[in-house]
Design goal:
Elements: E1 4-5, H1 20-23, E2 29-38, E3 45-56, E4 59-70, E5 77-86, E6 110-114, H2 132-135, E7 143-144, E8 153-154, E9 157-162, E10 168-173, H3 188-198, H4 211-215, E11 222-225, E12 228-232, H5 240-244, H6 257-263, H7 265-270, E13 278-284, E14 288-293, E15 306-310, H8 315-324, E16 329-332, H9 337-342, E17 346-348, E18 353-359, E19 363-364, H10 405-418, H11 422-430, E20 435-436, H12 459-468, E21 480-487, H13 491-505, E22 509-516, H14 518-526, E23 534-535, E24 566-567, H15 569-580, H16 584-601, E25 604-611, E26 613-616, E27 621-623, E28 641-642
Parallel strand pairs: 6-15, 6-16, 19-24, 21-22, 21-23
Antiparallel strand pairs: 1-5, 2-3, 2-5, 3-4, 7-8, 9-10, 10-12, 11-12, 13-14, 14-15, 16-26, 17-26, 18-23, 18-25, 20-25, 27-28
Helix pairs in contact: 10-12, 15-16
Length: about 650
C-alpha cells in the first residue's frame, strides 16, 4: 500500500482493517483514512478512532474502528493518509517479532493443553457425551487408525465378521480391559448398552451428536455372552469400521453398564467411567478439565501423569499462553503457524481437514419420512424466505413470470455463491495455507474433483441473478435481510461468517452475523425448524473418499438426531444407492452425480477448507506421534513423550 504523509507528526505505521464491503469489489480508487489519536498522560490508555471512507459502486462505505492500547506520546496527533490508484485488499497480518522458546510454567509431569474447547464431559451417551473423551484417551472404541495411516486397526475388537447379506456383524471383544475406579472388566454387555443408549431409534431421549447417524442404519445391539457383541444393521453403512466405531471418528463413549445399573443416569452424568489410559479427575464444560494417567493400561500407559485442559476462546490469548510458557500445547488457526515454527515451536496434525460451507438452511424438501413413509410436517414455510425453495407450493404468488419458487430461490443461492472471492479469503485470512472450497462435501484436492464445479467470483452476474429472481434494490440499495449463524465453539466459523457477510452485503442483501453458542441452536437442527444459514462443517472432511456415503444428515434418515439444515430427496436417493452398492466405482459414480446436483442447487455454498493443526513447546513435549484421525483434531495422548 502506498502512503503519502500529509503530517510532520507521523509517529508510526497506522493500519486499519477496511471492511470486506470496501475490498470485495477491488478497483483503482482513492481511499481516505483519518486517524485520530487522543492522549493526555504518557503511558496511559490511548484511544484510536479510525474512520475509513470509500466509494464502492457509487455508494459510500464508512466504518469506524476503535482500538485501545498503551503507547507513549506527548500531544494530540492527527494523521491523514491517502491511498491512490491501488486495489484495496484486506490488511495483511504483520509478522510478530522473533521470540525465544519459553521455559514451561507447568510442573514436571503436567502439561497444560488448550484444545478447541472443553466440550461436555458427561459419562452417559444419551446426554451428549462427546467424542472428545475418546480423543483424550478416556474412553475407547472397537477400532482405531493404524500407525501406517490405514484407518481400521483392532482396538477393543479382537476380531469381527460380517454376515453374507451384510445385515449383521459379530465382534469378539478384547478381554482383560478394566474400567476406571474398580468398576470391573469391560464386557460385550457394556458395549451393547452404550451403543443402544446413543442410538436415537433405541433411546429416543438421546441427544448424542450421532444419535441420528446410528438410528439411520442400526437396530438394537446385543451381547450373546461376555465377549460376543452382535451389531444388527437395518441399512447398509460402509463406514461403520472407519468412522462410527472408530477411536478417531464420530463414535460414542463406551461406559460401564454396572455403574449405570447401580448408580443411575444422574450419577453417570457427573462421573465418567471409561477404560482408556487417562481418567477424569475433573471436567467443567467450557472451562477446564484435569485428566490423570492410570498406573497401568492394557495397551500402553501414558508417560505424562497429568493433562490440564483449559478453555481459551480467543486466538490471541492462546498464542500468548503458548509463547509465555503458560501453555504447552494449543489448537490454533493455520495462519498462526508461520511465526511459531520460525521461533522453534512444533506443529502437529492428524491430517484432518474440513471445509466450511454456508449451509442454506430451511430447504426441507422431503415430503415423507424415509423410514416410515409418513407425511413430513413442515414448519419452515410459514413465510416466503428468499433462499428457501418451496417444492410443496412452488407457485406462491410472488415469483417473476416464468419462474417458480424453487427456481427463484436457486437464483438467490447462486448469487450468494458467486459473491464470495474464495482466493481472497484464503490469502487474507489464512496466508494461502488453506484450500478453496466450492461445493459442500466435495473438495478440490480430491483425485475425483472436476474443475467444472468451481464457483466463479462474479458480483455482476450475482446482481443480475437477484434482479431476475425478483429482488430489486430499494432506494437505499437494499434487497432483503439474511442473518448467518456463527457458532462460537469454533472461532474460525465466526471469522469466516464475518468475511462472507461482507461479500454478500455488497449485493444489497443485509447480512448480519449472529454469534451464538451451538447448544442454543442445536434443538432447531434436531427439530428441522431452522431457517438461518450457518457456517458449520456437516460431514465436510477432506479425507473422505468419494465412494463413501455422503449427506445422510441432510435427509430424514437422521430424524430424531442432528440434521444439517435441510432435507433433500436427491441426497436421500444417493445415500441409499451408495450404501447398498458393493462396487466402489459405482458408489463414486453416484456421488459424482451428487456433486453435480450440489453445484446446480448451491445448497451448501463452499467458502474455505481448513487443516486442523496445533502447536507445542519442544521444551515441554519432545514428541507426540499422533495417529491419523478421520475426524479427530488430535489423537493418542498416551503417545506424548515429555521433554522433562
Amino acid at each position: 500500500m502506498k502512503l503519502r504523509n500529509r503530517s510532520k507528526y507521523l509517529i508510526g505505521v497506522v493500519a486499519a482493517l477496511v471492511a470486506v464491503a470496501a475490498w470485495a469489489c477491488g478497483g483503482t480508487e482513492t481511499v481516505i483514512q483519518t486517524v485520530v489519536v487522543e492522549k493526555e498522560v504518557a503511558g496511559e490508555t490511548v484511544i484510536q478512532t479510525v474512520v475509513v471512507e470509500k466509494q464502492v459502486a457509487g455508494e459510500t462505505v464508512i466504518q469506524t474502528v476503535v482500538v485501545e492500547k498503551e503507547v507513549e506520546v506527548e500531544k494530540v496527533v492527527t494523521v491523514e493518509v491517502m491511498v491512490e490508484d491501488e486495489e484495496v485488499a484486506p490488511t495483511a497480518m504483520a509478522e510478530t517479532p522473533r521470540q525465544d522458546l519459553p521455559q514451561p510454567e507447568s510442573a514436571v509431569g503436567t502439561l497444560v493443553m488448550i484444545p478447541e474447547g472443553v466440550a461436555p464431559g458427561v459419562g452417559i451417551n444419551r446426554s451428549q457425551a462427546p467424542e472428545s473423551l475418546m480423543y483424550w484417551g478416556v474412553t475407547e472404541q472397537l477400532f482405531r487408525p493404524n500407525d501406517d495411516g490405514t484407518l481400521v486397526g483392532p482396538w477393543l475388537a479382537e476380531s469381527w465378521e460380517v454376515s453374507e447379506d451384510a445385515s449383521q456383524a459379530t465382534v469378539k471383544i478384547r478381554s482383560g480391559v478394566e474400567f476406571h475406579g474398580g468398576w470391573g472388566e469391560l464386557t460385550a454387555q457394556d458395549f451393547a448398552w452404550s451403543l443402544n443408549d446413543t442410538n436415537g431409534a433405541i433411546t429416543p431421549e438421546s441427544i448424542h451428536g450421532q444419535a441420528g447417524d446410528f438410528a439411520a442404519f442400526m437396530d438394537a445391539a446385543e451381547a450373546t455372552d461376555d465377549r460376543t457383541l452382535v451389531l444388527n444393521f437395518n441399512a447398509d453403512e460402509p463406514r461403520w469400521t472407519t468412522l462410527l466405531f472408530n477411536q478417531a471418528g464420530d463414535a460414542f463413549g463406551v461406559f460401564s453398564k454396572k455403574a449405570f445399573d447401580e448408580m443411575g443416569a444422574d450419577w453417570m452424568r457427573e462421573n465418567v467411567i471409561g477404560t482408556g489410559p487417562y481418567t477424569v479427575q475433573e471436567w467443567r464444560q467450557s472451562d477446564s478439565a484435569t485428566l490423570i494417567a492410570q498406573d497401568s493400561h492394557w495397551d500402553k500407559a501414558a508417560e505424562v501423569s497429568t493433562l490440564r485442559l483449559i478453555d481459551v476462546p480467543e486466538t490471541v490469548a492462546r498464542v500468548s499462553a503458548l509463547r509465555s510458557g503458560g501453555a504447552d500445547w494449543a489448537v490454533l488457526p493455520v495462519r498462526e503457524m508461520k511465526d511459531l515454527t520460525r521461533d522453534g515451536f512444533g506443529v502437529l496434525t492428524t491430517g484432518r481437514q474440513s471445509g466450511v460451507p454456508l449451509n442454506m438452511a430451511g430447504n426441507y424438501w422431503e415430503s415423507t419420512l424415509s423410514k416410515t413413509g409418513e407425511p413430513v410436517v413442515h414448519v419452515t414455510y410459514t413465510h416466503d424466505i428468499p433462499w428457501i425453495g418451496n417444492p410443496h407450493k412452488p407457485d406462491d404468488g410472488n415469483n417473476p413470470a416464468g419462474i417458480d419458487d424453487m427456481e427463484q430461490a436457486r437464483l438467490v443461492r447462486w448469487a450468494i455463491a458467486m459473491s464470495i472471492n474464495r482466493p481472497l479469503v484464503n490469502e487474507s485470512l489464512y496466508g494461502n495455507n488453506a484450500s478453496e472450497y466450492h461445493i459442500g462435501m466435495f473438495h478440490v484436492n480430491s483425485p475425483d474433483w472436476d474443475d467444472k464445479w468451481r464457483i466463479p467470483y462474479d458480483p455482476a452476474k450475482a446482481n443480475d441473478y437477484l434482479d431476475m429472481a425478483g429482488y430489486p434494490r430499494d432506494d437505499d440499495g437494499k434487497r432483503f435481510d439474511m442473518p448467518i449463524y456463527a457458532f462460537t465453539s469454533v472461532r474460525d466459523w465466526a471469522e469466516i461468517a464475518d468475511t462472507t457477510a461482507g461479500f454478500i452485503n455488497q449485493l444489497g442483501i443485509e447480512t448480519n452475523v449472529v454469534k451464538v453458542a451451538y447448544s442454543i441452536v442445536r434443538p432447531s437442527l434436531v427439530a428441522r425448524s431452522t431457517t438461518t444459514p450457518a457456517t458449520q462443517w456437516c460431514r465436510s472432511d477432506l479425507w473422505k473418499p468419494y465412494d463413501w456415503v455422503t449427506g445422510e444428515e441432510e435427509t430424514t434418515l437422521t430424524r430424531g438426531g442432528f440434521g444439517c439444515h435441510m432435507e433433500i430427496p436427491f441426497i436421500l436417493e444417493t445415500v441409499q444407492k451408495v450404501a447398498s452398492e458393493s462396487d466402489p466405482a459405482k458408489r463414486t459414480e453416484y456421488n459424482i452425480a451428487l456433486a453435480d446436483y450440489f453445484y446446480e442447487q448451491q445448497l451448501k455454498i463452499g467458502i474455505i477448507a481448513l487443516p486442523f493443526v496445533s502447536a507445542y513447546n519442544p521444551n515441554s513435549i519432545a514428541a507426540w506421534p499422533m495417529r491419523p484421525g478421520p475426524q479427530a483434531p488430535h489423537t493418542s495422548p498416551e503417545l506424548i513423550v515429555p521433554a522433562r
